[in-house]
Amino acid sequence: MVDTARMQGFINGLWDEAVVPTLVEYIRIPNKSPAFDPDWASAGHMDAAVKLLEAWARERLPALPGAKLEVVTLTGRTPVILIEVPGEIDDTVLLYGHLDKQPEMTGWSEGLGPWVPVLQGDKLFGRGGADDGYAMFGALSALLALKDQGVPTARCVLLIEACEESGSYDLPFYVDHLADRIGDPSLVVCLDSGCGNYDQLWLTTSLRGLTAGVLRVDVLSEGVHSGDASGVVPSSFRILRELLSRLEDPKTGEILLKDLYVQVPAERIAQAKVAAEALGQEVYAKFPFVDGMQPVSDDLVELILNRTWRPQVATIGVEGIPALKDAGNVLRPYTSVKLSLRVPPTFDAATAGGMVKALFEKDPPYGAKVSFDYDKAGSGWHAPPLEPWLAASLERASQQSFGRGVAMMGEGGSIPFMGMLGEKFPRAQFVITGVLGPHSNAHGPNEFLHIPTGKKVSGVVAQVIADHAVRAKLAKAA
Length: 478
Fold this sequence. Notes:
Layout: H1 4-27, H2 40-43, H3 45-60, E1 68-72, E2 80-85, E3 89-98, E4 118-120, E5 123-125, H4 129-148, E6 154-161, H5 171-177, H6 179-182, E7 187-194, E8 202-207, E9 209-218, E10 224-225, H7 226-229, H8 236-247, H9 266-279, H10 282-285, H11 300-309, E11 312-319, E12 330-331, E13 334-343, H12 349-361, E14 369-378, E15 381-382, H13 388-402, E16 407-411, H14 416-424, E17 429-436, E18 448-450, H15 451-477
Parallel strand pairs: 3-6, 3-7, 7-17, 8-16
Antiparallel strand pairs: 1-2, 2-6, 4-5, 5-18, 8-15, 9-13, 9-14, 10-12, 11-13
Helix pairs in contact: 1-3, 1-4, 1-15, 4-15, 9-11, 13-15
């Protein structure tokens, strides 16, 4: 049904002529997610990003007869872009992405910056291009390529949110508000995930949950001379280290709270072995280790399972400690750290937060004032088994676009929308993929979009939507 060469040629041309130039302009906009810019509404950057994407889409909707676009804004909430494209088949496909961004982060290489788009070969550097500004363009490119050949499709709904990097706390309200217009999709496509390499399609089979919170230890009402107090007043930093050791083995990084673990499904272990064989040392070599640094294990399968199915904690922020240039000989009154705890895909994140809070606050050393306040709890997601038609479609699409078969692996990050959709649409099949591959460094410095992968993923989406229509038509006939 689909002329693959013509389809990919159409997508490549559209990306070169219109997608990449627009992504360049998008990267210039500092539309940080609300969690990182409380004044986002008055700043106007989010509205600017929405208007840019809206204008691009509206210019191309005439090629999709009957298509409608609306920017929906509920009072006090970030906007969403909703695009409805009629289809010839009585079924629905939901395509998802987001346009809000992570904050700047330090450490960008000379000449690069979060809001400075730079094209270097096949890479477009700057914040948000790969995570996940390309999503709307990729989805519409796929639909336009199918329309170019007159390939029938189901009705397609594109939902682009502006709160994902803050935990998607606005999205449930929009999903309820737009329930009649979204319908009951049998296929969900999410373009906000990663890829193990740029040589084949990577399907995300699970996402870890996230509990983030602030652990604070107070020992004094004000700082005092360290020469007078040290050895008498326990250091808040030492107490904090002791508390963290209740949760994490400081030598291995293993989470000691055994109740946070789940049994890893056998098929996910098998897929991790296949992924480890495909990736080799790239499992860890993709990270910018300093000279002489090594990963926590030399077992590649264990590393994959660590980052996809096992709980891990990271300290991502600190307060109460002066900068080095301002450090006087003072025993400080308190130390506070922001913790990011990743939990297994099938573990309830709020439950995890409560367990960690109880662990930290019980029996505080020396009677110190200890508090753990978790401000974010988003559960993970575990994909339902692939139906045979979708497994075959993904394999064929990967071979056509990349020249290699599809690979499957869990992701260590979170996409809160997926868990929500999994509960809301239990009959749906899921295609979760993305362009965040080795060294693309989402959320960090030097983030980039690998443009050829963006084009190929768009081609995969087109093929899967075409195959879905065939499957839906046969199902209706039966």
